[in-house]
Amino acid sequence: MIKVKELRRSFGPVVAVDGISFDVGQGEVLGLLGPNGAGKSTAMRMLACFLRPDGGTASVCGYDILQDPIGVRRSLGYLAENSPAYNEMTVGGFLKFICDVREIKGARRRAALDRIVPMCSIESVYHQSIETLSKGYKRRVGLAQALIHDPDVLVLDEPTDGLDPNQKHEVRKLINKMSKDKCIVISTHILEEVEAVCSRTIIISRGKILVDSTPDELKEKYQCSLDAVFRRITKTKSA
Questions:
Q1: Which of 25, 72, 119, 200 is the one with CA 20 to 30 A from 1?
Q2: Residue 24 sits in a domain of what CATH number?
């Protein structure tokens, strides 16, 4: 469902993403790992058509990010790193606005809201303005807007950032439930989250892919915890 081919992006002299290639299929949850500044968020923004690559390309559900960005956006749900939203809107107003953007109307809109509000546990704040919400609730609203059109592909940048342990557990359960028939890419610094939800792991450093494997295979190969594997790979291969 996702095909990435020699994707590149620089910011002035800084090479953020340096010719990465990978595929992700239906039923897979791919965890993008890497140190701060490794290129994870930049790669996700290019996949979601928020940034144009300097070289290479990618496709989502057969739609090329350069040739058909509208097709990509229709097929994809994207949770950005900082969960941008309109602070003056209520949660309900914001989700209805997203429905307008997504052309979800009438009975389909009612069904989408009835599905997504309890799924993301935002019933209690539905009538509050977004600026009054805690970081955790803002994150859940961001997740709701990414899921409201029931996309085949999800790109989630730090989906549990700001959530308390119970909320993290619920989001991980939700990702596991959705993973059966969707293609999901998540970025996270929480290695226990990788073990909890990811069927595959790519480790990136300085814009390059260092490892593409599964969490279990990495632990078996290095005979240590995933945390120790991550430190060993990112320190030795990017030195």
A1: 119
A2: 3.40.50.300
